[in-house]
């Protein structure tokens, strides 16, 4: 509402008239949705940047977008230019798109095989932590007051500054140095910095992958799409990334405020309860990071989608009978938290890890570009059509998400091999051998 008022005030000063409701809604929708457009563009260039500049170089360069966005959004209010909010949000989206494409690659490539899952969960843990911190900062006791909203938007510069201070002290990805650049000395130096003096096993693994793909260049996305040797891996990450956005998690957050209100929570206290959902997802991502090397990827993501399917059924029932008993709204609230816990336990974190593990060095950047593009397009699509789904089906919209979650659980169970404690080459060979029997028709 503060941004609405700022746009109205700016419009009045420029044109000596109040802005119409239609134009205000259009401008607000643009400010919100332009983030996903930027994210899509960031995903499409992230893979190229990671090949040209290296994983570390791409992440450092990406901070330019975050700092530019913070500057533009911070200047929007004092300059009276609401257009800067749109441009700033666009640059924030690019920053997010590049980061989500490159960061999991970097973490997956610098981690020892035995810790690759736990390291890869860092992406999910800190995304959920960022959401939680954003919710807390947005409270009226902190930066949620009218005079502070421009400062709230400029806080996007803080992670960028932290990364610019800390990341230069870390080495480049050893796999990138040896396989992409042929820099043996640089690779050994990076391995020593990461793993200490005993890095022979990691060096042997990287060298074996290099020899296996000797003479191969990093593939472009369109080359990967026509490469039949990785079609099952490609189909898997496309389905996983579509399902990650269309599994109902957005619907749960949409209904959360309504359910909290139905449960008798005063309107002015609902933002504080909503913070609980962010904390819930953050804690679950952390738990997933602790369990992933013990239980494996397949168990967590299959179990997550199975639990989400059950929650969809229960949620449909509780929403259908909200007025039957005073207890029902509280059961609905339990379903909200159970659904978020199930999402964070598997689909929310493991999806990115599988995108890293199902591909080798020459195909991984292109795979992340395709996966990221699909993810951001799905994010945009669900934001576009979801209000109409709710309007048409109301609480029965969760039956649609039930189908998506149950189909994904079935697909993962029968198609995806366990990747825990396996090298990238072992995963590649096992994935292909296990699916050759069921290969798609030529």
Question: What does this protein look like?
Answer:
The chain is mainly α and 442 residues long. It has 2 domains: 1-10 and 18-170, Up-down Bundle (Growth Hormone, Chain: A); 220-437, MFS general substrate transporter like domains (Growth Hormone, Chain: A), CATH 1.20.1250. The chain contains 20 helices and no strands. Helix 4 (83-110) runs antiparallel to helix 5, helix 14 packs antiparallel against helix 15 (297-320) and helix 15 runs antiparallel to helix 17. The protein is globular. The N and C termini lie far apart (55 Å). The relative contact order is 0.12. The mean pLDDT is 86.
Summarize this, please?
This protein has 442 residues and is an all-alpha fold. The protein has 20 helices and no strands. The chain folds into 2 domains: 1-10 and 18-170, Growth Hormone, Chain: A (Up-down Bundle); 220-437, Growth Hormone, Chain: A, CATH 1.20.1250.20.
